[in-house]
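Follow-up to my post from last week.
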Amino acid sequence: MAVNPVSKINLISLNRHKDQIIDLLHKAGVVQILESEESREASSSDVEYNLAQVNFALKFLKKYEAKLPLKKKIQQIQEGGITITEKQYQEIIDEFDYKGIIEEISDLEAEVNQQTNNITKYQSDIEALTMWKGLDFNPAELGETEYTNSIIGGLDKDKFEEFLGKIKKIEKSSEIIKITEDDKKQYLVIVTEKQAWPKMKSILSDYSWEDANIPHPDQKPADAISELEKNVIKAEKEIESTKKKIQKYAKHDKNMKVIFDYLSWQLEKNEAGNSTSRTEDTFALMAWMEKDHIELIKKEIEKFTKQYTIDELPIKEDENVPVPLKNKKLFYPFEMVTGIYGMPLSKEPDPTPYLTGFFLIFFGMCLTDAGYGAILALTSFLAIKIFKIPPEKSKLFKVLIWGGLFTFVIGALFGGWFGIILDQQLPAWLGNFLMSIRIIDPIANPITVLIITLIMGIIQILFGIGIAMFHEIKAGRAKDGILDHGSWMFFIIAVMFWITTMVGVLPESLGKIALYIVYAGIAILILTQGRKEKNIIMKLLKGIGSLYGLVGYFSDVLSYSRLLALGLATGIIAMVVNLIALLVVDMVPYVGWFIAIFIFIGGHLFNMVINVLGAFIHSSRLQFVEFFGKFMEGGGSRFKPLRKEAKFINIVSK
Amino acid sequence: MGIGLALAVVGAALAVGMAGTGSAIGMGLAGQAGSGVVSEDPEKFGKVLLLDALPGTQGIYGFLGAVLVLQKIGLLGGDAVEISTGVGLALLFACLPIAIAGLSSGIYQGKVSAAGMGVLAKKPEEMGKAIILSAMVETYAVIGLLATILLVNGINVE
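User reply:
Got it. Predicted complex:
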């Protein structure tokens, strides 16, 4: 199943049909438009600006949004945003004066900001004034009079006594009044006779005097504080009333969202239009398109004009063709797993259907708890149903439903049921029944499970090589396919055969034959892997060097042992949760049961979440690193068609 | 309580302590980077939490190793088994794979997760790749845990 073939098309039509055609392509959502180099008009800045404005308004309104009750919220998610009819949509676009409203909103925002700034200013003044509270005159009254000079300020506390002594010696007529102090400074008012002022000034500068900077000096500090406090309250009230006004705008939220989607579509279309090249009367548009959609689009365009052509252009060898994935319904959700790794190249197979089975089995083995599997499948299923998640957004949940089901089966086979020890902690009939389903107990026989995981690894790796071979042959390179990949498959199977005879699974008498087959495999690899070199010595050296690849395969296979470790981790932590819960029952009198239930539910929930995450990640990793490398390079670019995707609204015809 | 038992307890303590330290440092690093992303875009908190949680598994693995040892020597809700000094030492050493691999991989996984926060900030749709890169480091904690499980399982205490 290779990726769906993509064509490069050139659509030419008359300029007067341009808007209509682009609108059609936008609605159809099947073409990825290529930018033409010749015509890059810089317009659409208007739309972009308006869009940014609407975005601001939406964010701003959200801040002041009234809280919805949970029931309403679920309803909103179910509806997938805002559902409106075509007619309502058109009405809103024509009549809703969003620019005016945005202007009003920004005025209100400015008001709130202004008041908030005022409050900050008032509060910092109050803080600065607090230490001057004791002052019972206006600081502005200080200064020069006819005979005296007075100042207010502070100097270092520990030098204050020294300073006082010095003043007393030199200048007796000065009056020094202690006002207040903080941890470093002593604040004073100094009144000096005018003639003594110069002397005083020089002493003050010796003691690094600092003039006090008191806000609102024309009032007594205590009075100023109380007035500022009144101002703060007033500003706060102001903000409250502005906020109430803003909340009234919340009713425009819905229309604003409609406008947002409208503008973003407009922007998309403008950008698409800008990517065309044009002559006086015609325009040309280059795009990628899936081959099977071309006829469809032709039919649609013919509904309104016959004056157009769509040509398929040749695709150059090195062109980066975008890759659309197209899978049957069953495999569709697993495209998200492929998507995490990235797209395959356009010539490579789409790995999605191949990885699905392996992914699910590995996911199940990482969890190995039937109880967790059932809960996971059920909750994912309910999530889709309750929230009515549309198919394109429910991929993850569908993967988890399948993962849960596989976990349920594999968990039952491995005897994992919420970590309960089946033969001790359950009534005999249930325990015996669950034990009869159990094929293997991973805690008692970890080695057996380890071998199972390694075998699965070998199977997946052989499968990967097989895919590579199959695709080479299908592409008409049968020789390369068989020599490059077939020889390795042969060799790996031979080595497996040999190992099974060694460990006694197959009769030891076959060991000799097996060994000869392995030798044959080595010979084949040496002879084939260097065939593209010209020199005979290089051919041999490259062939021998290729044997090193076995180390790579060996480490790939060992990597699958993580399945055992993660599976055991889930099981053992689940057991520990039960153990602690039971201990609590014994230890705490009367309410022990109650606490135990909390521990049980909380513990298992935690264990489940952590391990589902781990199972998903590690199962994916095995696909990406160990599996994909065998048959694909990846690095293709995603097919991103021009598509009418709504962020908020859902237009229904009617 | 004999020396053998004490040595086994040291092993369990190391498994929890060292692997837990690895996770704590790792989650700390990732969390610091993550807070930066959240401060810009609080709606990404869920995804940040996910990336931050990844280096947390080492601590759990260490705890797991410890529980296995404690179960082996009967310290979990039962009577302690008397074991020889040799067996005690063996159990201590059996704990080292997860202790050491947990410590180092936790720290480095945290660094990869912290770098992944950049992916989350700039290209949130590519977050899966950041998660996988972080999980690559965890491989060695998983393998350490596997070795510890197999070793503890293989040691005979009777």
